[in-house]
Write a structure and sequence with these properties.
Number of strands: 5
Largest sheet: 5 strands, mixed, barrel
Structural class: alpha+beta
Helix content: 55-70%
Number of helices: 9
Shape: elongated
Strand order of the largest sheet: 1-2-3-5-4
């Protein structure tokens, strides 16, 4: 049985166990590929099952087991490109951890090429540090946007406001767009299958989220009064 060398790497602050096969190929385990984006190994197996119906006869999605040098462990290895295909497939499904990881890696790849073009020298630690920050900031923004929309919906139900019409009034007042128009913006910028507040952060959607935050905190006032007050409070925060 072939022996594989083992190493630990950091990808956007996520520690991943990788292996080098005797022929120089880099692989990782199915569980590692899944764990990196917060999923169980069974999700990767389903991905392979779906992918097997799409590949050409020349492609082989059956992977060998390898022993790890210096240990008694064995892994069913998957090539690094299959792991990245899995993460990319989860992006299309709206998996926030996958989106954050893939986005951060893409930014790093572009940054490296720009640095090379302009003769800028950085250490591996600097690249990894910035990629980690990018991933964490992305996840933090998404969490904030989700929380504010959830609070907004709860406030509407609590005070007997129509969530849909209130949402339209709020977005029109904040960014002069209806919720439908913002949804179209989402389709352009992100994934049409996920909610309005789940798309890539932009100044307009950030303002909408901030207005929702203040709107949800007020205990008095009708819809129009709350929106007017929430807009004022949101603009004060930016100063």
């Amino acid at each position: 049985m072939n022996k594989a060398k083992r190493a630990l790497i950091q990808i956007a602050g996520i520690e991943i166990e990788v292996f080098q096969l005797p022929d120089g190929t880099y692989v990782m385990s199915q569980s590692q590929a899944s764990k990196a984006i917060g999923l169980s190994e069974i999700r990767f197996r389903r991905f392979l099952s779906e992918k097997s119906s799409e590949v050409s006869p020349e492609e082989d999605l059956s992977f060998d087991k390898f022993s790890i040098s210096g240990t008694g462990r064995q892994i069913k290895a998957i090539p690094a490109n299959i792991a990245s295909d899995f993460w990319l497939s989860q992006v299309s499904k709206g998996n926030n951890k996958a989106i954050a990881l893939v986005s951060a890696c893409m930014q790093e790849a572009l940054q490296r090429r720009c640095d090379t073009a302009f003769g800028t020298t950085k250490t591996e630690h600097q690249y990894e540090q910035q990629t980690t920050i990018n991933r964490e900031q992305w996840e933090t923004r998404r969490k904030y946007l989700r929380e504010q929309h959830t609070n907004f919906e709860f406030a509407c139900k609590t005070y007997g406001f129509s969530c849909a019409s209130t949402h339209n009034k709020l977005t029109l007042a904040a960014v002069h767009k209806t919720a439908k128009e913002l949804k179209e913006l989402e389709i352009i910028q992100g994934n049409k299958d996920v909610g309005l507040n789940y798309i890539e952060d932009s100044d307009e959607l950030q303002l909408v989220a901030n207005v929702k935050k203040h709107f949800s905190r007020y205990r008095k006032g009708d819809v129009n009064e709350r929106i007017h007050r929430a807009l004022k409070d949101s603009h004060k925060e930016k100063r």
